[in-house]
């Protein structure tokens, strides 16, 4: 049994201890979408067609996307462009997961990207040219930035332990609004897909980005970071940790336990 699977077993165990039925619907803090797409409101005809489709058609490929994670992505080529990312993921097997990304967690959220997650074992088998597209996850986990809202702490830590040393390949296909941007988001998905990366040093996220998410979702990233200190023992040097090093005007510092395979992770 993987740590990922153990995590969800812990969820049901925790609910059993609390008492009451296990429900797939968990109350969570609502985060509305950043952007509203261009276009006219739905007509009654469209709404009737949607209702009929919902009644008569199934959506089997969507049902396994039952793991909810929230983190942050800077764009690799333009790391000052940063956004909050709501991931809905399907763990396909022990080494591979696939996620759809949204700019919020409400029913009108905009789908703005995709992410594939692979284990360290699969990453090691990739051609060297391919590896430049895959960002490391240890910084997101050990910093407390990546969270799985509304599940017991013991289950969340098991989930995060299962993703230590893993990698993600993320493409954002829609700028629904970069944090702190002056131009706002695009009304439609425009331009080329943007390769996203991960934060791997303190000081890389814009001031207020993580705090805004924490405030809206009632999360304490600082406390999670402290609680995950015991996961450092499982962290191995990863490829791509230093890819954004030196690309920010503000000073940055290493995250304890997060090191690049080619570097030391020392302060700039």
Structure description:
With 268 residues, this protein is of the alpha+beta class. The protein has one domain (3-20, 67-254). Helices cover 26% and strands 18% of the residues. The chain contains 8 helices and 9 strands. Strands 1, 2, 3, 4, 5, 6 and 7 form a 7-stranded antiparallel sheet that branches. A two-stranded antiparallel sheet has the order 8-9. Residues 10-25 have low confidence and may be disordered.
| Helix-strand makeup class | alpha+beta
Calculate the mean pLDDT score and round it: 88
| Helix segment tally | 8
* Termini gap: 41 Å
Q: Helical residue percent?
A: 25-40%
SSE run: HHEEEEHHEHHEEEHHE
| Percentage of β-strand residues | 15-25%
> Could you name the ranges where pLDDT drops below 50 across 5 or more consecutive residues?
10-25
What spatial form do the alpha-carbon principal axes imply?
globular
Query: Count the strands?
Result: 9
Rg (CA only): 19 Å
Number of domains: 1
The main β sheet shows up as: 7 strands, antiparallel
Keywords:
single chain, 8 helices, 268 residues, two-stranded antiparallel sheet
Topology:
Blueprint: H1 3-18, H2 44-56, E1 67-74, E2 82-93, E3 96-102, E4 111-118, H3 120-124, H4 128-131, E5 135-136, H5 138-142, H6 153-162, E6 167-172, E7 194-195, E8 201-202, H7 209-217, H8 221-227, E9 253-254
Antiparallel strand pairs: 1-2, 2-3, 3-4, 4-6, 5-6, 6-7, 8-9
Quick structural overview:
The protein is α+β, with helices and mostly antiparallel strands and 268 residues long. The chain is built from 8 helices and 9 strands. It has one domain.
